[in-house]
Design a protein that fits this description.
Blueprint lengths: L4 E6 L3 E2 L4 E9 L3 E11 L10 E5 L5 E4 L10 E4 L12 E9 L8 E8 L4 E7 L4 E8 L3 E9 L6 E7 L5 E8 L18 E6 L12 E3 L2 E5 L3 E5 L4 E9 L5 H8 L9 E6 L12 E4 L7 E4 L3 E4 L20 E4 L13 E4 L7 E8 L8 E8 L8 E5 L1 H6 L5 H4 L2 H6 L7 H8 L19 E3 L22 H13 L4 E5 H7 L9 E4 L5 E3 H12 L3 E4 L7 E5 L6 E3 L27 E2 L8 H4 L1 E6 L7 E3 L19 E2 L13 E5 L10 E6 L7 E2 L22 E7 L3 E5 L5 H4 L8 H14 L23
Parallel strand pairs: 2-27, 28-30, 28-31, 31-33, 32-34, 33-44
Antiparallel strand pairs: 1-3, 3-25, 4-5, 4-6, 4-26, 7-16, 7-22, 8-13, 8-19, 9-10, 9-16, 10-11, 11-12, 13-14, 14-15, 17-18, 19-20, 19-24, 20-21, 21-22, 23-24, 26-27, 29-35, 34-35, 34-36, 37-40, 37-42, 38-39, 38-41, 41-43, 43-44
Helix pairs in contact: 7-8
Length: about 775
């Protein structure tokens, strides 16, 4: 009997009562699953906490669901809209493109451009053979003629390639020329490489075209008896300015195109100008055909744009400065943005549903392990009702979605000081390309994953999930400890998401007197940063309940909020690094990377910024002199002694995992007070590269005084304030001892003061205007 497995996702992650949300479910080993809407309270099953807590909610779709096996199209490619079949050429033709293969000898054929049905062996294609040789083929169903180059393509090198077929003589020609300059390829011009090949042969027949075969770039049409049509022969690499002519282009004409001339008008059927369409806000998924018939190509699974092209000169690092040098469209065989599964069930949310963290729980077979699935989403209020908002860091959830670090990064064991503890769900994620990757991974061809999405099963965004490399809860399940704390203390709160903040800006926060962040709000778009800063400056009171937050600039397309773009580079620890010239995001046109490198270190808004990370043991906080200031006594009211948080669900302390510190040189407001600091961290905590000018011994926890978490507080204009705990482990200390502990008491003091009407308890306020000058005696 087949093992029962359930996986699913929803079309939305942020909804309001009365909205319709759709659930997409894949099932193995069962045709029925029992569904139950639940409100999630606590996720971490650590024995020192309250355990897993959920509340079942009545709704119209609770009960048995029919479920089925679903199939996913992985890999990015372009499909041309060609209703009139103008690309189904029956006479002579020439097809060409600039290409930059990433993995030419992958072991399977890769189709670069063509109108090819791989199941029926009909049409034509220009691609890369299993052994890395450029190949041109023509099929009529029963038979296929092939022509291959004599010199294999090399990875990370730019070429101009072309193929032609003379319908009268049957002469097929294959053209391959390297177009390497000083900057555009992995090797330079001094490397003694043979990149060129020119071959020809007589083919026996012309291509037979099927009516429904699409013209594709970076893949070809295929068929499977269970899943139907799909795209196979996926290509890993870049394609720049491909074209198709209804005649044979001569060698001299191809040489001119190779050297950068615009293709001639005579005989042009299509010329996809991959540099067309750039604006200051980036570029979309549609590649424009500037030929006579405007046969534009649509991207699937988000081909990467804003990438350097074959003619990149190295003089400019952004497409805005030299758009004609940014024609590279990059494809990956395992890219995934949307599973596009059929809708299993749609739910109109009850009108009286409270704001909070919810999930559709599915069970089949044993109802545990892979037979249990939670599809999470968050419910906002129709109209804000509470004075407190919990801001769920969904952008950061996306950055880490289905990350493969425990499998693919050997350094993880050294970083965490432990062997990854894998579960069935981890293994299932690794086995199935349908789950895709996170922004801490590389695609199969070695390039870093710069897109992530929640329209797929995100298995590490589940309430009970423990991150295998660290053996703690992380991101979503860790943030449920904050939800549980709010519930335990009966706070009237609403839930918002990063998606809401990016879309609505400061208007999403303004109704609330107090906003509480998640435990690791690391990835923040400019719109989110602006909204947060404007909220605080306008009198909002903000509790930053984590560390390594507001760290990296990302982009979210507002018409597709389920997709996140992230470019990693620069002065930071990183899982991969974007290539030179590819630091600007196609989604918004903004430069990616750490906010510190963009002039907005988090200290300027939150008072603290990232200094170190480590795993295996957390430490307590120790009260600092500022905590004894009578004006700030309300923060530590009811707390006896010097030590705060020598307990917790994340390595037995409130200060750990990742740490932030106070730093006036990076923008900590001068009126900020340090309430408490940690110390005594192990040498598994290393000072972050952003606060070092040079690597040297003595930059670890037991040596470097900077390795600490600084719990800070400062007042802002208009009776606002910011409290920062500066530790990811802080939130996971809240549930200890049934929420009866000094971390819980301290946070309650701050939340109560921030949420109540009227001024804050402390008398000292920042000066918003300079004092008037004394009159000068005449």
């Amino acid at each position: 009997m087949a093992q029962v497995k359930l996986f699913g996702y929803s079309d939305k992650i942020s909804v309001k009562p009365g909205d319709v949300i759709q659930f997409h479910v894949n099932a193995d080993g069962t045709e029925v699953a029992e569904a139950q809407l639940v409100r999630l309270i606590h996720g971490d099953e650590h024995p020192a906490g309250p355990g897993f807590v959920e509340q079942e909610i009545d709704c119209s779709v609770n009960g048995a669901w029919r479920v089925e096996k679903q199939y996913t199209q992985v890999g990015s490619f372009l499909e041309v809209g060609d209703i009139e079949r103008r690309l189904a050429l029956e006479g002579s033709f020439t097809v060409f493109a600039f290409v930059h293969p990433l993995w030419p000898q992958v072991g399977t054929r890769q189709c670069l451009v063509g109108r090819w049905d791989n199941d029926k062996n009909c049409g034509f294609g220009l691609g890369i053979k299993q052994n890395g040789l450029l190949e041109f083929w023509v099929g009529q169903g029963d038979e296929v003629d092939y022509l291959e180059a004599e010199v294999p393509l090399k990875a990370n090198m730019w070429y101009f390639v072309a193929a032609s077929l003379d319908a009268k003589t049957g002469r097929a020609t294959l053209y391959q020329e390297g177009v390497v300059n000083r900057y555009n390829s992995v090797l330079g011009k001094v490397a003694p490489l043979d990149l060129n090949s020119h071959v020809s042969e007589v083919f026996r027949f012309r291509p037979k075209h099927l009516a429904d075969t699409p013209f594709l770039m970076a893949g070809s049409r295929d068929w499977h008896e269970k899943r139907g049509h799909f795209v196979s022969q996926l290509y890993c690499g870049k394609i720049d300015r491909p074209g198709l002519f209804d005649r044979v282009l001569g060698r001299d004409e191809l040489d001119l195109i190779r050297s950068g001339d615009r293709p001639p008008a005579k005989g042009m059927v299509a010329y996809w100008d991959t540099t067309h369409g750039y604006t200051d806000q980036g570029i979309g998924d549609t590649v424009t055909d500037v030929g006579p018939f405007k046969l534009h190509a649509k991207g699937y699974n988000r081909p990467v744009r804003a990438q350097t092209g074959w003619n990149w000169s190295g003089r400019n690092d952004c497409f805005r400065l030299a758009p004609d040098e940014y024609g590279g469209v990059e494809f990956h065989s395992d890219a995934l943005i949307d599973c596009n599964w059929k809708v299993t069930k749609a739910l109109k949310l009850p009108d009286d549903l409270r704001s909070g963290a919810y999930a559709m729980r599915l069970r089949a077979g044993p109802g545990t392990g892979l037979g249990e699935e939670y599809i999470p989403f968050f419910v906002r209020p129709k109209v804000p009702t509470g004075r407190i908002a919990f801001l769920v860091p969904t952008a950061s959830y996306l950055a880490y979605a289905n990350e493969h670090l425990s499998f693919d990064a050997p350094i993880v064991q050294g970083m965490t000081g432990m062997t990854p503890i894998l579960t069935d769900i981890d293994v299932e994620m690794y086995k199935n390309p349908e789950f895709g990757h996170g922004c801490y991974d590389s695609w199969a061809d070695g390039q870093g994953v710069c897109y992530s999405s929640y329209r797929r099963p995100v298995v590490n965004m589940r309430p009970k999930y423990r991150i295998s490399s660290m053996d703690i809860t992380w991101q979503y399940p860790a943030d449920l400890s904050v939800i549980a704390w709010l519930e335990h203390h009966n706070y009237d709160y609403d839930v918002l998401t990063d998606e809401d903040l990016d879309l609505e800006g400061v208007a999403a926060l303004k109704p609330y007197r107090c906003v509480i962040s998640g435990t690791h709000p690391e990835y923040y778009s400019e719109r989110m940063m602006d909204a947060t800063e404007d909220y605080i400056e306008g009198g909002g009171r903000y509790i930053y309940l984590g560390a390594n937050g507001y760290y990296c600039n990302v982009a979210i397309r507002q018409d597709e909020p389920w997709v996140l773009e992230c470019r990693k580079f620069g002065d930071t620890w990183k899982a991969w690094e974007a290539r030179p010239g590819e630091h600007y995001m196609a989604t918004t046109g903004q430069k990616g990377g750490p906010w510190k490198c963009l002039g907005r270190p988090p200290q300027k808004i939150m008072g603290v910024g990232f200094v170190s990370e480590g795993f295996g043991r957390s430490e307590p906080f120790y009260r600092m002199p500022d905590s004894y200031d009578p004006q700030l006594a309300w923060i530590t009211e009811g707390i006896d002694g010097e030590i705060i948080g020598d307990f917790g669900l994340a390595y037995d302390g409130a200060a750990g995992v990742e740490l932030d510190r106070y730093d006036l040189t990076l923008g900590t407001p001068p009126n900020a007070k340090v309430i408490a600091s940690s110390g005594g961290h192990t040498d598994n905590y290393i000072t972050h590269v952003q606060v070092q000018l040079h690597q040297h011994p003595g930059i670890t926890g037991s040596y470097d005084y900077r390795v600490r978490a600084d719990m800070t507080y400062f007042a802002t204009p208009n009776d606002g304030a910011v409290f920062s705990c500066s530790s990811i482990a802080f939130g996971q200390a809240l549930p200890a001892n049934g929420f009866d502990n000094n971390v819980s008491r301290l946070l309650a003091n701050v939340v109560n003061a921030f949420a109540k009407p009227g001024p804050l308890p402390d008398a000292a306020r920042p000066e918003t205007t300079p004092p008037e000058a004394e009159p000068v005696a005449s």
